[in-house]
């Protein structure tokens, strides 16, 4: 507790007002009744006034006594109600900024039998609240990263870093990725995936939630990233078409080792996109389709491995990748009446990946050619999702019931062919994998605005099944495949959950408390013929509470404190028992005995805003038990390294985040993000089962790390803008090692044409070609250093047209 207290009072840092989940426009509603009869009063005059009694807006109640006034800015007001034959009602009303709705409840009017001039009734100040930790970024505003993938568009966002196709929040890669608020096969139901292949052109905005409430699934201790896809709802026929193209790997940064195929150069990128919408009366139809074709120097890693017996091996892993990712979303909104609507939608995607790889090995002592591994990895990922969402709105605005059902099917179809050439022989082998994932989700969510807050509650049920079939095709002699380790396995996951979340707000103080109770039953059934693993699994019933307390010092200054408990369940790929040979001498294997990782997190934040800018700062601390990681070991006299999923024990992440934004002139705006943290992984000892039982012990790892991001936006005349982004990533720890610092500079320009309907953009990432990943890894009996000169420098050009 001493350490937590120190962290809690470390520092006050801030949150940009413009990127919080605050509402700039609020709907105020209520019901007007007779005091004696309790009957609704129709056609009553309702006015919102400033404290000086100046009129802001007004309305009249309907035949059921209900009134609703939209477009109210947060602040102090007088609510004035008048009706012939009744005494006037005037009440002070505070409108908060964290929810789009406020329900003042039932207001009773008293008959004015004696025709009194005026009666003033004073009540407590009212307020509502909502999420305080959401940052929202519009993809179109990210000029320097436009035209690429979603992963690339995230690189200069506050608190976000990317590494090996994964996204990290504040140095943590345990991040839950949602699309339109749902987990999907495209981005993963457990570990994140696929972000580098989703076109940014299909995305409207990206939401970052560092401290999720109980209404979200409990997994993802690093936080949540919600990708909101584009969808129009304008009346009539409208849409948008676009085309972007580009080139990457403009020159060779590191020459190949001898005897392998050339690296990809001048790699093309092509992304056509289409978004259509037609709305007439009560029906709205929408369609979106994107196709992203890229050729990429996906990996170009040079490694020196040193073993305790004096053996030194120099190697290179070069991977030329061809990717075609097609995604489409279509559906219909049916606005049945003012209180009921139904949305039926479908999502389909197909990702085709072909990796052409070369991996030569040389003796580091005498230069002898030891081995050449060449491969073709041909993988097709197909996903389809059907969704039905029903919403019932009660008479009171913001009071609603949502019921949804989602069914997802996706298939991973991988074929891997390799040629293993050594001085004395050459063999051709392969393995095939098919994994079908079937996921059914049902959710029931109820939201009720209250006079002083908001109530949210609901239930969710998930059934997820993944049968996998791995087939090894060994050569007759000198095979490297473990022929007893293939076969069949089935992953089955059942998760019912219930949650409740209550928010209370008055003028200066806001409190939120929530609880999610989740039961998980996971079973992993293994082929009884497998030579190492047997069926395994786990189950738990666990509470996941959250709390938030916010104090408004004044209109410009605010303090917030957060607490969350979350879990990271091992995904199917972490458990998958089949060894993967996509690297000749580093064999990846899952572990069906893997257990969940539980995390508690604390955060203290401060924000301050002024006319031309804002400041945000936060200090945070997370500590985890059962940390999920991969452990690299050697077990025999060969040079093979086995990379196996394990629970490494305890770890922690403590840091600060600062965001400062300032409008320097009418044409120049600058924003800076600083994230500094201390990562620690405690010493641990584990027992690996594959390929034979062996024990591994690691010492404690710790590092001070972080990143700095600087975005400068320029207005170049009336219809043009530019953005210059600089990113610095400090050295950090990774499992059993460290990763060196990295730096990049990105530039983008955008111009509106055709009376604002057309848009041209040009941008370049990693202008100076400085983004190189350098690692040092220490295992038992070996260590290695690596430099990965993968493709980072890309120039893109594009055109979009709205109609």
Can you tag this structure with a few keywords?
803 residues, mainly beta, Maltoporin, Chain A, 2 domains, 4-stranded antiparallel beta sheet
Description:
This protein has 2 domains: 22-109, Immunoglobulin-like (Sandwich); 236-492 and 505-802, Maltoporin, Chain A, CATH 2.40.170.20. Helices cover 2% and strands 63% of the residues. The model is unreliable at 1-21 and 115-132 (pLDDT under 50). A hairpin with a 3-residue loop joins strand 24 (487-505) and strand 25 (509-526). The chain has a 22-stranded antiparallel β-barrel. A 4-stranded antiparallel sheet has the order 4-3-6-7, with no helix packed on it. A 4-stranded mixed sheet has the order 9-13-14-12, with no helix packed on it. The protein has 3 helices and 45 strands. The chain is mostly beta strands.
**What percent of residues are in strands?**
over 45%
Level-1 CATH class name of the largest domain: Mainly Beta
Structural class of the helix and strand makeup?
mainly beta
CATH superfamily label of the largest domain: TonB-dependent receptor, beta-barrel domain
Backbone shape: globular
Uncertain spans, ≥5 residues at pLDDT below 50?
A: 1-21, 115-132
CATH topology of the largest domain: Maltoporin, Chain A
Separate helix tally: 3
Largest sheet: 22 strands, antiparallel, barrel
What does the radius of gyration come to? 29 Å
First and last CA, distance: 59 Å
Our count of domains comes out at 2
Q: Could you tell me the mean pLDDT?
A: 87
Total strand segments: 45
Helix content range: under 10%
CATH architecture of the largest domain: Beta Barrel
């Amino acid at each position: 507790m001493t350490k937590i207290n120190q962290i809690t009072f470390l520092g006050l840092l801030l949150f940009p007002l413009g990127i919080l989940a605050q509402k700039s426009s609020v709907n105020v509603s209520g019901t007007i009744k007779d005091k004696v009869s309790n009957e609704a009063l129709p056609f009553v005059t309702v006015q919102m006034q400033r404290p000086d009694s100046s009129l802001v807006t007004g309305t009249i109640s309907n035949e059921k006594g209900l009134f609703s006034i939209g477009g109210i800015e947060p602040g102090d007001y007088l609510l004035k109600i008048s009706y012939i034959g009744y005494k006037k009602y005037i009440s002070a009303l505070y409108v908060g900024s964290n929810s789009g709705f406020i329900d003042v409840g039932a207001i009773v009017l008293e008959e004015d039998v004696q025709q009194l001039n005026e009666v003033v009734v004073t009540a407590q100040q009212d307020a509502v609240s909502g999420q305080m930790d959401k940052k929202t970024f519009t993809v179109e505003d990210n000029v320097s990263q436009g035209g690429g993938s979603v992963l690339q568009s995230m690189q200069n966002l506050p608190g976000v870093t990317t590494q090996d196709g994964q996204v990290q929040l504040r140095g943590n890669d345990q991040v839950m990725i949602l699309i339109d608020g749902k987990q999907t096969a495209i981005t993963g139901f457990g570990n994140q995936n696929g972000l580098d292949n989703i076109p940014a052109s299909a995305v409207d905005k990206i939401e970052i939630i560092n401290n999720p409430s109980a209404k979200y699934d409990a997994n993802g201790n690093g936080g949540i990233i919600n990708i909101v896809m584009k969808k129009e709802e304008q009346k009539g026929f409208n849409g948008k078409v676009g085309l972007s193209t580009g080139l990457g790997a403009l020159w060779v940064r590191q020459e190949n080792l001898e005897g392998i195929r050339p690296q990809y150069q001048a790699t093309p990128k092509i992304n056509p996109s289409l978004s259509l919408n037609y709305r007439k009366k009560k029906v709205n139809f929408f369609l979106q389709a994107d196709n992203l074709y890229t050729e990429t120097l996906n990996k170009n890693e040079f490694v020196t491995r040193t073993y305790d017996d004096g053996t030194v091996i120099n190697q290179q892993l070069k991977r030329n990748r061809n990717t075609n990712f097609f995604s489409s979303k279509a559906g219909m909104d049916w606005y049945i009446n003012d209180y009921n609507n139904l949305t039926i939608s479908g999502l389909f995607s197909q990702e085709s990946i072909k990796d052409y790889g070369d991996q030569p090995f040389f003796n580091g002592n005498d230069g002898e050619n030891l081995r050449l591994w060449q491969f073709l990895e041909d993988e097709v990922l197909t996903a389809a999702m059907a969704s039905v969402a029903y919403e019932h709105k009660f008479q009171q605005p913001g009071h609603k019931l949502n019921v949804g059902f989602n069914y997802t099917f996706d298939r991973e179809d991988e074929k891997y062919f390799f040629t293993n050439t050594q001085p004395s022989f050459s063999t051709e082998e392969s393995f095939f994998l098919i994994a079908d994932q079937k996921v059914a989700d049902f959710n029931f969510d109820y939201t009720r605005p209250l006079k002083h807050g908001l109530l949210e509650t609901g239930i969710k049920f998930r059934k997820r099944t993944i049968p996998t079939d791995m087939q090894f095709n060994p050569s007759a002699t000198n095979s490297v495949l473990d022929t007893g380790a293939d076969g069949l396995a089935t992953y089955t996951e059942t998760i019912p959950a219930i949650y409740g979340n209550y928010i209370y707000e008055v003028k200066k103080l806001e409190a939120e408390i929530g609880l999610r109770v989740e039961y998980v039953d996971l079973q992993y059934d293994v082929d009884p013929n497998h030579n190492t693993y047997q069926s395994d699994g786990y189950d738990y019933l666990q509470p996941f509470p959250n709390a938030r307390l916010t104090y408004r010092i004044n209109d410009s200054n605010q303090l917030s404190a957060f607490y969350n408990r979350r879990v990271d369940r091992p995904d199917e790929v972490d458990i998958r028992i089949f060894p993967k040979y996509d690297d000749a001498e580093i064999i990846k294997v899952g572990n069906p005995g893997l257990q969940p990782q539980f995390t508690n997190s604390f955060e203290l934040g401060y924000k301050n805003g002024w006319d031309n800018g804002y400041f945000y700062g936060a200090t945070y601390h997370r500590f985890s038990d059962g940390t999920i990681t991969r452990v690299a070991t050697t077990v025999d006299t060969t040079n093979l390294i086995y990379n196996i999923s394990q629970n490494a024990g305890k770890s922690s992440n403590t840091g600060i985040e600062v965001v400062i934004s300032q409008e320097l002139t009418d044409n120049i705006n600058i924003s800076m993000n600083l994230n500094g943290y201390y990562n620690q992984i405690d010493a641990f000892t584990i027992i690996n089962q594959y390929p034979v039982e062996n024990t591994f012990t690691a010492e404690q790892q710790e590092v001070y790390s972080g990143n700095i991001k600087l975005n400068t936006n320029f207005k170049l005349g009336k219809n043009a803008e530019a953005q210059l982004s600089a990113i610095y990533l400090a050295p950090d720890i990774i499992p059993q090692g460290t990763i060196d610092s990295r730096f990049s500079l990105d530039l983008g320009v955008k111009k509106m044409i055709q009376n604002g309907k057309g848009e041209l953009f040009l941008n370049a990432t990693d202008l100076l070609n400085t983004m190189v990943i350098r690692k040092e890894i220490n295992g038992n009996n070996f260590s290695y250093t690596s430099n990965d000169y993968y493709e980072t420098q890309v120039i893109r050009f594009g055109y979009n047209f709205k109609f």
